[in-house]
Amino acid sequence: MPGEKQISTDREVLSLRPKDRVFEVSVTGARGLSIRVFPEGDRVFEFRYYAADGKRRRMQLGVYPGLSLSKARAEAGKFRSEVIDGTDPAGERAEAKMRARTGETVSDLAEAYFPAAAAGLHGGRKRPKKPVTLKAERALFARYIKKELGDRRFAEIRRSDIKRFMNGLASGGKLAAASVARIGEALSAIFAFAVHEDRLEHNPVRGLAHPLALTSRERRFDEVALAEIWRVLTIHSVPHRKGDDHDDQISRLAPQTSLATRFALITLCRRAEACGARWEEIDRKSGTWTVPRERAKGGRADVKPLSDAALAILDAAAALPGASAEFIFAAPGKPDAPLDETRPTRALARLCERFGLPHGSPHDFRRSGATILAGQYGFSGFTIGRVLGHQVHEGAAVTSVYNRFDHAPEKRRALDTWAKYVLGLADGKAETNIVPFAAAAS
């Protein structure tokens, strides 16, 4: 509310002395015009009014003496006339600022979304998105979305437009259902940002991101594949020497990549967790590895027991020439940077191709381990979920918030069993139906 005192001349404006708190006085001869005096000494003209929707608006006109008293009165009079005509000058000014930040087209919106998401300012859970996630979303936008929708005004996009676009992707026959879904999810995230920024009332992509039914992936490595993968990666877990009898692209696997891939296999962790592992996360005394909440997918720290085989891999990584003091599996030639998490995926793809194995990825280690631990050794789904770092609950979900016991003994028994199984396959001593690789490949 304006104070009781009113001013009408420049001399009176100059006589307003700063106080410990902001105070305000109204200006005579201009309805809604006042001047606010800040402790720092700034004198700012403001115009107040009620918009057509009944909301009270406030807009700054300028700082005195840059904006004189007479010009402030003239500005206030102009805006008063606009309000009487039904316009909302403050709302339009805010809208203009918003447009400057988010742009008008879908491409403009995407370019505003990506840096906002990197800082956690995109809405949702209000946590920064991982660089690898944003890199994938950028690639999907550039390859599939920009050409069809990039030049469209995002405020004019309707659900029918999204449905037509998504159905076109799904019916083309070139993309799997999961790939179409990832494109839809990226597009939905971009439009959700527009809602968060108050540029849209509703997200037109909601409910349309998955036009095709998604089926649970069932790809697993069999015993023959696991044995061969472990054998080859073990060979390449040490620096290559001149004269080594390898003449294919497998011979170019960096030892850091081989070790990280073996570590992911033997611990059943996610590839990003393995590639980003730090020495400070390892407790050799207790034989555990704690993935901090910042890197764990579930958003909470995950304590993983380490088998003797996993500890041996850590010893091999520490013994590499130029080993990093920070990262367990550092980028080749860059000890101050972690291993790129796409390296194990590419390495495994090359390995499968070279040895005639069905194509697989590091994530398939987790599915294979879970299946074998449950089917052959009888571990419960709850224990396997804990081993995989999933958020599984016994009883009411709220109970798990208070129950911080992470079932370490069961997890350790499961991972020790898995390690013995894999090493037994590689040595040909496991009680399985493994057959010689040459015969299986023929």
Describe, in plain words, how this protein is organized in 3D.
β3 and β4 (about 45-50) form a beta hairpin. α4 packs across α7 and α9 packs across α12 (about 340-355). The strands form three sheets. This protein has a five-stranded mixed sheet with strand order 1-2-3-4-5. It has a three-stranded antiparallel sheet with strand order 6-7-8. Strands 9-10 form a two-stranded antiparallel sheet. The termini are far apart. The longest helix is centred in the middle third of the chain and has 20 residues, at about 175-195. It contains 17 helices and ten strands. With about 450 residues, it is an alpha+beta fold. It has helices at about 10-15, 70-85, 90-100, 105-120, 130-150, 160-170, 175-195, 225-235, 255-265, 270-275, 310-320, 340-355, 360-375, 380-385, 395-400, 410-425, 435-440, and strands at about 5, 25, 35, 45-50, 55-65, 280-285, 290, 300-305, 330, 335-340. The relative contact order is 0.07. It folds into three domains: about 5-90, 2-Layer Sandwich (Double Stranded RNA Binding Domain); about 105-195, DNA polymerase, domain 1, CATH 1.10.150; about 225-440, Orthogonal Bundle (hpI Integrase, Chain A), CATH 1.10.443.
